[in-house]
Amino acid sequence: MTSRTRAGADGLPVPVAVRILRAPLEGRTWRGFGYLMLGLPLSVLWFSLAITGISLGAGLLITFLGVPVLAGLLALCRGIGRFERARARALLDLDIADPEPVRAAGPGVFPWIGAILRSGSAWRHVVYSVFHFPWSVFAFIVALTFWANGWMFLTYPLWFWVFPVFTDQPGLQLFQNGDYTYYLDGPARIMGTFLLGLALTLVTPWLVRALTAVDALLVKGLLGPSRLAGRVSELESDRGVVVDTAAADLRRIERDLHDGAQARLVALAMDLGLAREKLTEDPQAAARMVDEAHGEVKIALQELRDLARGIHPAVLTDRGLDAALSAIASRCTVPVRVTVDLPTRPAEAIEGIAYFTVSELLQNISKHAGARAASVEVWKAGGRLLLQVTDDGRGGAVAAAGGGLAGLGERLDAVDGVLIIRSPAGGGTTATAELPWRDRTATPARR
Question: Which residue of 112, 135, 281, 312 has the fewest C-beta atoms within 10 A of its own C-beta?
Answer without folding.
Answer: 281
